[in-house]
Amino acid sequence: MLNYFHKKLSSDSVWERVIYAFLLFMILFFGVTILSYYFLPEGLLKNKNPLQQWETSVNTFILIFQIFFYNMISVLVIVFGSLFGQKKELDDNYLSIGYLGFFTMICINATVLGTWSFSVEREAVPLLGRIIRTFDLIHRAGLWEMTGQLFITCAIAHISTVLTSGKNTVTRKIRDIQMTKEEKLVLIIGLLIMFIGAVIEGNAINTL
Q: Which residues cross the membrane (predicted)?
């Protein structure tokens, strides 16, 4: 199973990467949400992220850009990870380490949802309600933001400059990296999706 996803996530087709990354994302996100709901204490991660301690603007327009650029921190983590690629000697393509950064953040988000560790005080709801609320795309930004990150991760999966195969490591210069038109399109779509998430989250915060 792991080898199968390795092949799909490192595929030459960016759309194939998106499809299988989204499938793995859904399995992992809701799986960790359910496990953390039943086995971890409520509020476990509440206020554990020091980067969340920033003043939000009362101006919704400004707040939207605050949220968008705050979320770009996660994108920078993904971009940095994507500069490294690994594969076994018999594999066709290198697997971007950016996926590790992305799916780690997905697990953290899932744990926040499962343990109801949001920084904004809200009354906890049952597990099914938490899952259903995730798909409220008009009022909830989480799925928008994570999907945007996913598109970006898949778009830049082949930009690695440090390539490791077994015990052999080779490097290439950043200027030698070429993204296809499809990859550039997926990257733009990912950024737009994340901006939509920022708009929804900004409106939700200033209407509380």
A: 20-40, 60-85, 97-118, 146-164, 185-205
Q: Is-contact 160 173, C-beta < 8 A?
A: no
Cα gap 203→124, rounded to integer Å: 21
Q: Is residue 125 part of a domain?
A: yes
Distance between CA atoms of residues 32 and 26, nearest Å: 10
Instruction: Quick: pLDDT tens for 143-165.
Output: 999 999 999 999 999 999 999 99
Does a structural domain hold residue 146?
A: yes
Structure letter (DSSP) for residue 55: P
Cα 138 from Cα 83, distance rounded (Å): 34
Dihedral of the CA atoms 28, 147, 38, 138 (nearest 10)? -150
pLDDT the model gives residue 28: 97
Residue 60 in any domain: the answer is no
pTM above 0.90, yes or no: yes
Share of the chain above pLDDT 90, in %: 72
Domain that holds residue 146: 2-45+68-205
Cα dihedral 77, 190, 128, 120 sign? positive
Nearest 5 degrees, angle CA 106-CA 88-CA 4?
A: 55
**Residue 51 belongs to some domain of the structure:** no
Cα distance between residue 201 and residue 64, in whole Å: 7
Supply 151's token pair. Answer: 């598109």
Query: What letter represents residue 23's amino acid?
Result: L
Instruction: Give the separation between CA 64 and CA 150, rounded to whole angstroms.
Output: 20
